[in-house]
Amino acid sequence: MADAPPMFEARDLARHFDVSRPLLQRMVAREGRRTLKAVDGISFDIPKGRTLSLVGESGCGKSTVARLAVGLYTPTAGSVRFDGRDLGAARASADQRRRMQMIFQDPYASLNPRWRVKNIVAEPIRAFGLVTTKAEEEMRVAELLTQVGLSPLDGDKFPHEFSGGQRQRISIARALSSNPEFLVCDEPTSALDVSVQAQILNLMKELQQRLGLTFLFISHNLAVVRQVSDRIGVMYLGRLAELAPAESLFRRPRHPYTRALMEAIPDLEMTGRDRIPVGGEVPSPITPPSGCAFHPRCPLAQDRCKRERPEMKSAGGAMVACHAVEEGRDDAMPMPAIARDAA
Amino acid sequence: MSNAAPLLEVRNLRVEFPTRRGTLVALDDVSFSISPGEVLGVVGESGAGKSMTGAAIIGLLEPPGRIAKGQILLDGRRIDNLRYEQMRRIRGKEIGAIFQDPLTTLNPLYTVGRQLTETMTTHLPIGPAEARRRAIEWLEMVGIPAAAQRIDSYPHEFSGGMRQRVVIALALCAEPRLIVADEPTTALDVSIQAQVIALLKRLAREKGTAMMLVTHDMGVIAETADRVAVMYAGRVAEIGPVREVVKHANHPYSAGLMASIPPLDRRVERLAQIDGAMPRLSAIPRGCAYNPRCPKVFSRCADERPDLLDAGTTRAACWLYALEAPHG
Ligand SMILES: Nc1ncnc2c1ncn2[C@@H]1O[C@H](COP(=O)(O)OP(=O)(O)OP(=O)(O)O)[C@@H](O)[C@H]1O
Ligand SMILES: Nc1ncnc2c1ncn2[C@@H]1O[C@H](COP(=O)(O)OP(=O)(O)OP(=O)(O)O)[C@@H](O)[C@H]1O
Ligand code: SF4
Ligand code: SF4
Ligand SMILES: [Mg+2]
Ligand SMILES: [Mg+2]
């Protein structure tokens, strides 16, 4: 993994939002401005041709990282580098924009309802001048639609004539149309049935092997994440809790939050395995707990956890931000059932 | 559970879309029922007609789509032929809808709290102060952190999964007897998902709420549904108890679908997939619509269309289960 130079680097990346109430209400209630730290200092690399996935609770900042990664948000602090060049400094060049594409979480909001599908898919091809003739363009659009399991004849329709999953396939075809090298996929398959999902994931793997694509992948479905990832970052309240090679994360999760997350996975096999939601209250991102943000819910929390924010430190092959792991007392928390079963 | 009189009955439902190039049949001869307290899971290929079935039930088919045949009954009373105003009252009060697309349900110009309180004051005999108190409670129940602080936020200030939870709270807050939920947990992480599922199950158990649960997430189906309907190309391919359909599907399409579920306990080089794509509505094959992709296809499949047949543990629309069919 260390062999290839990183295609993508995030360094101490942060993005804060001002979520203050309107001035008048603030004056009445005598309260100040409020800041929500959606992403608060995270660092990771993705080598060329690899896939890094981000998992974590809803609202922990995954989509915000995705938007930062393709330059849709500017960082409040820190930097993102793509193929060695800083994205923040100047607006991304046309070539950079062609080389990185994003598949959005919400296939409804991301497709222009007034455009025919063929124009939606062809738009990046035109914008970046990737073909010279109309016939070439039509062929390319037909090929892309077929790749994602739609028919070339579907090109004449409008987005509202498609089901949710079909629309997501249109946005995947569009993202692939500019021949990107780096794809940010925010929940790309959660609107798809499992057989189309399998087709799309197989296609992604095949493109990766054939063309060396690099992926930043976001999904709530840990089974899907296991199939596609080389590395996995577990986020909690805007920060990374653990960053580890995919297989070791599933075989030996280290951070207490990672372990808790794995106990909450649905029991598809209907073995009767208990599904345990992560205990305690989901904390407010506006007033996050002191020290380690996970401490109010953590069975291993001690005084130090309330005072001192843990930094990422290497633990085995992984990077973990947890005092208990650092102090070697993480064995007090049992391994989740799915890791026990694998061992 | 199934001996109680059904709360919802869908009989031979057919939905058509007249277009310039001819009439498209989006749903054809769809029948099922749901009893009080029962959860019917609906799964199947993307584009199979799951959302359309839900939209027909709640009376929100998008024109030019229309019910061309069949009936929909709530508590024995037809609701497919009601006028818009009558249906609007039933929706919200008796049927709660959770849509696949949260943005169509939430008004971007109103705060989350206002949308919840207005829904409750419209449908329940309570005043604004009580409604606000309950709104905070509902937001807490669906797992919105710091609900009391965030109730006055606008939808765009929430993450994708948080918006989805607001939609769920909106559908539940008027305490309907039937919930039509289209991908309610897709945008949620596993922990919140577990919490929402537990809430829905509790409503079914304690209040006898019936639910049609459309989802691609087989884990959610396995945990929540009592029975499952598998749809393909506008029809019900198989229907039966959840364990039978998920673990021992009889219809070849259901079997292929279940085989495509990615395993959690190991990494595989290539996931099992069903090759090819579902037919377009304008080109549904003759006979069994699945026949061009079916590994078990035989001569009869290309000529005649199978209806739901008794397949022992489930009912399956497949000629393999006709008495005179050649087996093996
Ligand atoms: N434009 C914005 N204004 C204010 N707050 C925002 C904005 N965008 C995101 N947030 C907040 O930032 C936090 C992280 O949001 P984000 O969308 O990145 O979460 P996520 O991890 O993608 O969640 P999900 O799994 O639900 O999609 C949330 O608390 C959200 O409410
Ligand atoms: N306005 C419309 N005009 C024409 N066809 C439509 C229209 N809306 C939907 N369809 C078609 O009707 C079929 C059923 O769509 P529906 O949204 O019910 O699918 P679904 O099973 O919910 O799929 P998904 O799992 O992807 O959400 C699809 O083939 C779709 O292309
Ligand atoms: S730092 Fe402390 S509170 Fe945080 S995860 Fe580790 S043990 Fe738990
Ligand atoms: S009827 Fe024939 S083609 Fe259709 S599912 Fe059964 S065996 Fe396959
Ligand atoms: Mg998100
Ligand atoms: Mg749908």
Automatic annotation (TrEMBL), chain A:
ABC transporter domain residues: 14-262
Molecular function in Gene Ontology: ATP binding
ATP-binding recorded as keyword: yes
Compartments where located: Cell inner membrane
Keywords: ATP-binding, Nucleotide-binding, Transport
Major localization class: membrane
Claim: Nucleotide-binding is one of the keywords in the record: yes
Family annotation (PROSITE patterns): ABC_TRANSPORTER_1, ABC_TRANSPORTER_2
Membrane topology: Peripheral membrane protein
Family membership noted in the UniProt record: Belongs to the ABC transporter superfamily.
Protein name listed in UniProt: ATP-binding cassette domain-containing protein
Species annotation: Roseomonas nitratireducens
TrEMBL record, chain B:
Signal sequence bounds: none
SUPFAM superfamilies: P-loop containing nucleoside triphosphate hydrolases
Keyword Manganese in record: no
SMART domains: AAA
UniProt xrefs under InterPro entries: AAA+_ATPase (IPR003593), ABC_Ni/Peptide_Import (IPR050388), ABC_transporter-like_ATP-bd (IPR003439), ABC_transporter-like_CS (IPR017871), Oligopep_ABC_C (IPR013563), P-loop_NTPase (IPR027417)
Main localization, broad class: membrane
Keyword annotations: ATP-binding, Cell membrane, Membrane, Nucleotide-binding, Transport
Membrane topology term: Peripheral membrane protein
UniProt-annotated location(s): Cell inner membrane
Domain ABC transporter stretches: 8-258
Keyword Cell membrane: yes
MF terms in GO: ATP binding
The family this protein is said to belong to: Belongs to the ABC transporter superfamily.
PANTHER family in alphabetical order: DIPEPTIDE TRANSPORT ATP-BINDING PROTEIN DPPD (PTHR43297:SF2), OLIGOPEPTIDE TRANSPORT ATP-BINDING PROTEIN APPD (PTHR43297)
Protein name: ABC transporter ATP-binding protein
Organism phylogeny: Bacteria, Pseudomonadati, Pseudomonadota, Alphaproteobacteria, Acetobacterales
